[in-house]
Design a protein that fits this description.
The structure is a single chain. The chain is an alpha+beta fold. The protein has eight domains: about 80 residues, Phosphorylase Kinase, domain 1, CATH 3.30.200; about 210 residues, Transferase(Phosphotransferase) domain 1 (Transferase(Phosphotransferase), domain 1), CATH 1.10.510; about 70 residues, Nucleic acid-binding proteins (OB fold (Dihydrolipoamide Acetyltransferase, E2P), Beta Barrel), CATH 2.40.50; about 55 residues, no CATH class; about 80 residues, Copper binding periplasmic protein CusF (OB fold (Dihydrolipoamide Acetyltransferase, E2P)); about 80 residues, OB fold (Dihydrolipoamide Acetyltransferase, E2P) (Beta Barrel); about 230 residues, Rossmann fold; about 210 residues. The protein contains 31 helices and 48 strands. The chain has a seven-stranded mixed beta sheet, with no helix packed on it. A six-stranded mixed beta sheet has the order 39-38-40-44-45-48, with helices on both faces. Helix 24 packs antiparallel against helix 25. The relative contact order is 0.04.
Length: about 1100
């Protein structure tokens, strides 16, 4: 039986970021097992896979009764076959605190496991409650060795663990090195939580001060030397002194005060009962025993007397547990009045947290509703009436019932202002609205602000300009106003068939909504002043129409927010069906009617309304295949003019889209993108409603981690079929490492661990390239955030895209079109009046249909970029933001990496000597070049410079025969001819050189072309003016060719020509004035040498060849 067939997955137990644990069956041995399966993406990652098998090796090497046993591995499936546990301690306890005896046993088992590990030089690194597993014999075993490390490892990595249980030295170097004592700290923290149960979190009221990310908040807490767990005796009743002493010492932040080894802890730990310190007197021992006995009696269920063995004692975890230690009062009795401000409310535990006016840590105030009295602005109140930021004064009083509190809360009486919303800034938590008198008013919001939209709970980001709002607000900490409640109303429309109507309610069967609500019955309240029209009339028998004038089956369109305030009804003038054709220019359409499938034609006048669920659209939105309900303008069936067309849009199966957006990062070094959520939400709505992307073909990832992105994107792209259009929009930060590798910045990004926390842009592009879509568009919206001073540099979208290029001349992608939002140094423009990013607004507007130039209901990449490029300049105003388009190129590289390296070795001979190795290098380079001339040109140049002119001439003639455009060959051959005074042939070579030089190209090509033309001017001037072997007629054709190349070419040739003439004139003057006959003869000989006036510049030729390797 193969390993893959031997084990069968039965069901899932737990899932993490790295692997999933399943309950399985070993068919060969007939036993239940646990199967830990690494996620698919990590099977393709060698580093992650090595970590996985390292865990297997560690487990296999640690054979101990209190360490989970590994039975087998199935490498081809990424399986670890493990011992099956009954569950973890938290799972079995179900939120209750653990019994004292069970706590002793759990500590004993875990400490023996850690002692064994530490003696073998291994730190677990992730000791926490969920890793304390209970086997079938009710023994506690230590599990999950995914991040365990050797004390001395090759990688030098720091031990990492779950931050809630992380030792201070793991977080901060100020506490010293990591070691076995780090696991002991985590164990102490774990024990403290197990004793407290669900009450443990209440011991950290100020944890939220470190930010919303709990992982980071716990790291900050552990690294703060002044943050400590309270004494157990002040927190829990009934915990014996010896156990409290052990746990308190385990959680000492100073490693010097903490236990150093597991053996030391075991020496102090008693399993059967309390072992008081040696200094305790006999009387104290008896008193401690009585207290321990009393504590046990207070528990609801005692451990059976016969259950004295370790195994049977811990088995009781599977039964209803004994009563755990009871939390002590969360604060000491305060005799002095207390003043402060509420910073957090915890109604579930009947408490709030107070920032004291006299300073210090936040104080937890527990309110007894039966004894304590609360007043808000002098009126009796309850805890539910309190608000964050309230000012509080507390008096502690005594009476017949004992001590009690009187809590006096003062707050400004809130003011209510109504108006129309103008701007929303979700990141800055503020909004601006226009009041009834026309003035603008700004308010800030916070996490206590309540929002409703049409009486439904909402978020700030869901509000839109033009919403009608009522704001309840009061003075904030500064000069701004703080919104306590924002009630928003937005007018929506709904079309359908009337089911019933009375003076309070209207029921409609919807047929002009999105596909999810089409056909559903909606009931809405009617406003008392609702306006009603029937076939265009507002009155009947001289009386205003009322709901009782409407009939079942009337066609109606409702305008509503929380109530219906307008009903437009039509009777006997509606027809429904499927659109067969649309004449956009003639404003008419044909419809296949429901029922008989007959074709009917309609004319859409200038006043005809065309509606979808989200509001009006233009005629071009309508497509063949859409379902429509048409209200004719007249009951006369011969009158085919439509007054209203209600559309049920049909999704476009060709359209697929991914939207990835970020607003607030957990990393405080990353500035928030103050419009990220609003932009992402708006783009999604546009893709869904106006660009008709089907719901199951739309992926949205907001503030996602790298792992979440990789999994979701990979799964989504695997479903995209051929001939479809794929749109990928990324709005977030970008980052370039020191090597210039580009990364998208997901949630959890750490600049110290870019490879494991960032998402390489190359990965995203390659994933898109591999999908089967016919057209693939990637939009990168990154750039400098205005006003931010982040210690993490933010890469522009252009630099992010170009970081993927293998060489500057290679494309960004072979099959995907990439649009970058901004270039280096440009900030991402924000539209303050819309609370949105300018670039995203332009993209959104493009997909509403504005960019569809060819009117085919599809926005291709060229239409998208042209529209965004044009519109961005208009909406951005004075801000400069320049997008860039990168077209795909699937043309393979002309030369492979190996061939380029081989050619460079041949070019190196230009700076050395010619030997047998050069011939070997040339042969290798020529074979790798697959018919390209670069190797022969390099070898020919080396031979020419090494004065092996005959061999060089033969090689270069061979090149120009098969590659007539090889400029360097003509350049070198012209030099040889002029050097050997074969001026006629040299001119012919120069003519071919002038013809073959690139007329356009990059900067390297243009520089070489200018150099070659200057060379032609110099060398022909030498032949004409010095040697006088040729005349102007011989140069006529060459100069004509150069002249046809344009003014720059003529200027380069003239520069070279006149440089030689000036050199010659200067030399002639010197010769004429030289009195010494011997010197004069020497200068005269110098005048006849070509090298005095011009040289073959091998460096320029080499540079041109080197840069040309990437062309």
């Amino acid at each position: 039986m193969s390993p893959a067939d031997r084990y069968q997955i039965v069901d899932s137990i737990a899932k993490g970021d790295f692997a999933t644990v399943f309950r399985g069956r070993d068919h060969e041995l007939g036993r239940d097992v646990a199967i830990k399966q690494i996620h698919q993406q990590y099977l393709e990652d060698p580093k992650q896979l090595d970590r996985y098998w390292q865990e297997a090796q560690l487990l296999a090497s640690l054979e101990h009764p209190n360490i989970m046993t590994i039975y087998d591995v199935v490498r081809e499936r990424g399986w670890l076959i493990l011992e099956l546990a009954q569950g973890s301690l938290p799972q079995l306890l179900g939120g209750r605190g653990i019994d004292i005896k069970d706590m002793r046993l759990a500590l004993n088992f875990t400490l023996h496991a850690l002692k064994f590990m530490h003696e073998h030089g291994i730190i677990h690194g992730d000791v926490k409650p969920s890793n304390l597993l209970v086997d079938r014999n009710a023994r506690v075993k230590l599990g999950d060795f995914g991040i365990a490390r050797r004390l001395v490892g090759d990688d030098g990595s720091v031990v990492k663990g779950t931050t809630k249980y992380m030792a201070p030295e793991v977080v901060s170097d100020q506490f010293g090195p990591v070691g076995p004592h780090s696991d002991l700290y985590s164990l102490g923290f774990t024990a403290f939580e197990l004793l407290c149960g669900d009450h443990f979190e209440t011991l950290f009221p100020g944890l939220n001060m470190y930010g919303r990310d709990q992982q980071i908040a716990w790291m900050m807490w552990h690294s703060a030397a002044d943050r400590r767990l309270p004494e157990i005796s002040r927190t829990l009743d009934g915990v014996p002194a010896d156990l409290a002493h052990i746990i308190q010492r385990l959680v000492e932040k100073d490693p010097a005060k903490r236990y150093r080894t597991a053996g030391e802890v075991l020496a102090d730990l008693s399993i059967d009962g309390e072992a008081p310190p040696p200094s305790t007197s006999v009387a104290e021992e008896e008193q401690a025993e009585r207290e321990a006995t009393s504590a046990k009696r207070r528990r609801s269920l005692a451990i059976g007397a016969a259950s004295c063995s370790i195994i049977l004692s811990l088995a009781m975890l599977l039964l209803p547990s004994q009563e755990p230690p009871k939390p002590a009062a969360t604060q000491a009795v305060a005799l002095q009045p207390t003043d402060g401000q509420i910073v957090q409310l915890d109604p579930e535990r009947s408490q709030f947290f107070l920032a004291q006016a006299r300073g210090g840590n936040a104080l937890g105030i527990v309110v007894d509703p039966n004894e304590d009295r609360l007043f808000v602005n002098g009126q009796r109140a309850t805890l539910a009436d309190l608000l964050k930021d309230d000012q509080v004064h507390i008096d502690y009083l005594s009476g017949s019932v004992g001590q009690f509190m009187e809590v006096y809360v003062t707050r400004e009486v809130a003011t209510t202002t109504a108006g129309v919303l103008r701007t929303v800034d979700s990141a800055a938590e503020s909004l601006v609205f226009e009041t009834a008198n026309g003035s603008l008013m700004g308010v800030r919001t916070n996490d206590i602000t309540k929002y409703t939209l049409n009486e439904n709970a909402a978020r700030l980001a869901q509000l839109r300009p033009d919403d009608r709002i009522t704001v309840e607000h009061r003075a904030g900490d500064d000069d701004t106003r703080l919104a306590l409640r924002v009630t928003a109303l937005r007018t929506l429309s709904l079309s359908g068939t009337l089911v019933s109507a009375n003076d309070t309610e209207v029921a409609v069967q919807v047929d002009a909504a999105n596909t999810q609500s089409a056909g559903a019955e909606r009931k809405l309240r009617i406003s008392p002043d609702c306006e009603i029209t029937l076939n265009g009339s507002t009155h009947q028998d001289a009386r205003p129409l009322s709901p009782f004038n409407l009939r079942t089956s009337d066609r109606v369109t409702l305008e509503y927010d929380v109530t219906v305030h307008h009903i437009e009804a039509f009777r006997d003038v509606t027809e429904s069906g499927v659109v067969a054709s649309v004449d956009y220019s003639g404003r008419s359409l044909t419809v296949n009617r429901d029922g008989n499938n007959e074709t009917a034609s309609f004319v859409l006048g200038a006043g005809c309304r065309i509606l979808i669920d989200s509001g009006p659209v233009d005629l071009f939105f309508l497509r063949p295949g859409d379902r429509v309900t048409i209200q004719r303008k007249s009951p006369d069936p011969e009158n085919r003019e439509a007054d209203q067309v209600a559309i049920v849009p049909q999704p476009d199966p060709r359209a697929w889209a991914i939207v990835i957006n970020y607003e607030t990062y957990d990393n405080p070094d990353l500035p928030p993108i103050r419009y990220g959520e609003a932009d992402g939400t708006a783009l999604l709505d546009t893709f869904r409603t106006l660009y008709r992307v089907p719901e199951d073909q739309l992926l949205h990832q907001q503030d996602a981690t790298r792992l979440a992105l990789e999994g979701a994107v990979s799964r989504f792209l695997s479903r995209v079929p051929a001939d479809s259009q794929l749109l990928v929009y990324y709005l977030g930060h970008g980052f370039l490492n020191e090597l210039g590798v580009g990364y998208l910045v997901p949630q959890g990004f750490d600049v110290r661990r870019v490879d494991s926390t960032g998402l390489a842009i190359r990965w995203l592009i390659e994933q898109v390239e591999q999908c089967r879509a016919g057209e693939k568009i990637i939009v990168l919206d990154t750039g400098q955030i205005p006003g931010s001073d982040s210690p993490i540099p933010q890469a522009s979208a252009v630099r992010l895209a170009e970081s993927v290029k293998e060489t500057p001349r290679r494309p960004v992608s072979t099959s995907a079109i990439v649009i970058a939002s901004s270039s280096d140094g440009q900030v991402s423009t924000k539209l303050d009046d819309r609370g949105r990013g300018a670039f995203a607004v332009c993209v959104e507007d493009a997909f509403t249909g504005e960019a569809d130039i060819n009117r085919n209901h599809r926005i291709d990449a060229n239409e998208l970029f042209s529209y965004v490029d044009r519109s961005l300049n208009q909406v951005a105003g004075s801000s400069s933001q320049t997008p860039k388009l990168y077209l795909p190129d699937a043309t393979p590289a002309r030369l492979s990496t190996e061939s380029k390296a081989a050619i460079i070795r041949v070019l190196a001979a230009l700076h050395g000597r010619i030997d047998d190795q050069l011939a070997i290098d040339f042969t290798n380079a020529k074979q790798l070049s697959a018919g390209q001339p670069d190797a022969e040109l390099a070898f020919g140049l080396a031979q020419m410079k090494g004065n092996r002119t005959r061999a060089a001439q033969q090689m270069l003639n061979e090149v120009r025969l098969h590659h007539p455009g090889a400029s360097v060959a003509y350049h070198a051959l012209a030099w040889k001819s002029f050097w050997e005074s074969d001026f006629k042939d040299g001119i012919l070579q120069l003519e071919q050189l002038a013809k073959s030089l690139p007329r356009a190209g990059d900067a390297d090509e243009q520089r070489y072309a200018r150099h070659a033309l200057e060379f032609a001017g110099k060398i022909t001037a030498f032949a004409e003016l010095v040697k006088r072997e040729i005349d102007a007629n011989d140069l006529q054709k060459l100069r004509q060719i150069i002249s046809e190349r344009g003014d720059e070419a003529k200027e380069a040739y003239r520069t070279g020509y006149f440089a030689v003439r000036e050199t010659l004139d200067s030399l002639n003057r010197r010769i004429a004035s030289e009195p010494d006959a011997q010197k004069k003869a020497s200068m005269d000989r110098e005048r006849g040498r070509i090298s005095y006036f011009v040289e073959m510049n091998y460096d320029e030729a080499e540079a041109y060849l080197r840069t040309g390797l990437d062309r």
